[in-house]
Amino acid sequence: MTAGTTLPPGTTTAEHELAALQREHGRPLFALLLRLCDGDRQRAEDLVQETFVRAWQHPEALRADDFDSVRPWLLTVGRRLAIDARRARQARPPEVCDAVLENVRVIADHAERSAAMLDVREAVKTLTPEHREVLVLVYFRGASVAEAAQTLGIPPGTVKSRAYYALRALRRVLPGYTADLR
């Protein structure tokens, strides 16, 4: 399609003219928009489509006698659309994609934490009193093995073995929490 072709006033660009316009100028327009969109093919294709919509809406611009080809007009419209799209993206917060969400640390909510605490309390009640004492001192109160041994009046090796067997018993009672008990 070349400039200078005239249609009666008030008519729109016919589908066959738009198809010819796409065939003749689509590739160079897409190449330009792909560079302006930093290689984002989807965004470039959307902008090509929007450019041809503008051409369909303004057939008078395509038929002006001032130029030999419509390509400069199409490239200018496409470039301006790309600039507008970039400015719009910069004006709003960035979109979150699935790749970003996969890397986000998951934080359990208060209800899950409370339910887990209740489960652990019930499981600790199933332990023998000796195992429970060691577990409470070492894991819940933060005492060292030496401090627990001194408090309970038993050798440090006994504290270690009781803690080991207490955790092993908890793993059997709390199968869903095995990763947390290692």
Description:
The protein is mainly alpha-helical and 182 residues long. The protein has nine helices and no strands. It has helices at residues 15-36, 41-57, 59-62, 71-91, 98-102, 110-125, 129-140, 145-152, 156-173.
Keywords:
mainly alpha; 9 helices; single chain; 182 residues; rod-shaped; disordered N terminus
Radius of gyration: 36 Å
Secondary-structure class: mainly alpha
Count all strands and give the number: 0
What is the count of helical runs? 9
Mean pLDDT: 81
Low-confidence stretches: 1-8
> In one word, what is the shape?
rod-shaped
Tell me about the largest β-sheet: none
Gap from first CA to last CA: 73 Å
User: In what range is the share of β-strand residues?
Assistant: under 5%
Instruction: Give helix % range.
Output: 55-70%
SSE layout and pairing:
Elements lengths: L14 H22 L4 H17 L1 H4 L8 H21 L6 H5 L7 H16 L3 H12 L4 H8 L3 H18 L9
Helix pairs in contact: 1-2, 1-4, 2-4, 7-9, 8-9
Write a brief caption for the model.
This protein has 182 residues and is mostly helical.
